């Protein structure tokens, strides 16, 4: 960032801190945060796959230290296909039992953190209470993760999982789109070339509103979401390698249905990435669960 912009950015952050004492987005306690000159610039770029502090560095102006300590990052060993973190912290990545049985249209899915505790709280507030200031730190966490888990040169398009137009209007934003919108800026700050990647918010459309999937089984979720997406522009999709982004991955049913739609329209490959993921197997197979590890 040029020095002038850096100074302006630092000043506005300092002014904001002075006017509005910050509270933890998860637990509402006051945070003793330092003014920082722009989030991405102030944040160490985490290059290693299993970087401790991948969340802490980015979230410290928004989440208190105690809550940050309770956030679990997804780290190996995990399922090579769906990214599920295994309870055993030893051994190599392998394919989980669900992925051995299920048909996946995405080549791989990866997530940054486990969807529980303070991370779940923060995502809820971002999504349902319109705390859109969380979009930037969440987006930065995902951008750093992108560079660690996927080969950027092999991605042509990054697209958000779409919301139905009515839901989008009620909420006022698509949280998945907010998670990728700042990536070109972050790429510039960190000197990473993503100029070949199109950020395409409208290659997929959700054509039908679906009931909330909370409490549904894996099979119910797959049925609930079947056939609800359509490809908006086949010419843009054909032969392209597409990264789909969403906030949370649960059973992967939504992601898989989006991927199926894109592959059927000629996409060469679909990758998936989410900010957080639940432990999809825990309900059925406690032995594979990640929680409590
Ligand atoms: Zn807190
Ligand atoms: Zn899996």
User: What is the mean predicted local confidence, pLDDT?
Assistant: 84
CATH architecture classification name: 3-Layer(aba) Sandwich
Bound ligands, each once = zinc ion
In percent, how much strand structure appears in the residues? Answer: 5-15%
Integer-rounded radius of gyration:
19 Å
CATH topology description: Rossmann fold
Q: Structural class of the secondary structure composition?
A: alpha/beta
Cα end-to-end separation = 40 Å
Number of strands: 7
Q: What's the number of helices?
A: 13
SSE series: HHHHHEHHEHHHEEHEHEHE
Q: Shape, please? A: globular
As a percent range, the share of helical residues equals: 25-40%
Strand order of the largest sheet: 1-7-6-2-3
Low-confidence blocks of residues: 280-293
Oligomer class: single chain
Q: Largest beta sheet, briefly?
A: 5 strands, parallel
User: Quick one: CATH class?
Assistant: Alpha Beta
Domains (count): 1
């Amino acid at each position: 960032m040029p020095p002038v912009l850096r100074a302006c950015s630092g000043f506005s952050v300092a002014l904001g801190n002075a006017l509005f004492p910050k509270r933890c987005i998860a637990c509402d306690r006051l945070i003793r945060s330092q003014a920082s000159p722009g989030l991405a610039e102030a944040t160490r770029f985490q290059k290693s796959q299993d970087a401790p502090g991948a969340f802490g560095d980015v979230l410290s102006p928004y989440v208190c230290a105690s809550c940050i300590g309770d956030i679990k990052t997804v780290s190996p060993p995990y399922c090579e296909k769906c990214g599920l973190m295994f309870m055993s912290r030893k051994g190599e990545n392998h394919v989980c039992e669900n992925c051995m049985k299920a048909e996946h249209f995405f080549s791989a899915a990866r997530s940054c953190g486990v969807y529980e505790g303070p991370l779940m709280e923060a995502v809820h507030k971002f999504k349902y209470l319109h705390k859109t200031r969380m979009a930037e730190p969440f987006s930065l966490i995902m951008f750093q993760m992108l560079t660690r888990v996927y080969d950027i040169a092999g991605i042509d398009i990054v697209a958000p999982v779409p919301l139905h137009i009515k839901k989008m209007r009620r909420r006022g934003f698509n949280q998945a789109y907010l998670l990728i919108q700042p990536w070109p800026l972050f790429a510039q700050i960190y000197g990473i070339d993503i100029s070949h990647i199109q950020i395409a918010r409208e290659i997929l459309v959700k054509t039908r509103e679906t009931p909330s999937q909370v409490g549904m089984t894996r099979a119910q979720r797959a049925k609930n979401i079947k056939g609800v997406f359509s490809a908006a522009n086949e010419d843009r999709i054909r032969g392209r390698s597409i990264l789909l982004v969403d906030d949370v991955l649960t059973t992967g049913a939504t992601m898989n249905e989006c991927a199926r739609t894109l592959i059927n329209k000629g996409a060469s490959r679909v990758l998936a990435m989410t900010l957080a993921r639940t432990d999809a197997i825990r309900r059925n197979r406690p032995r594979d669960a990640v929680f409590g590890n």
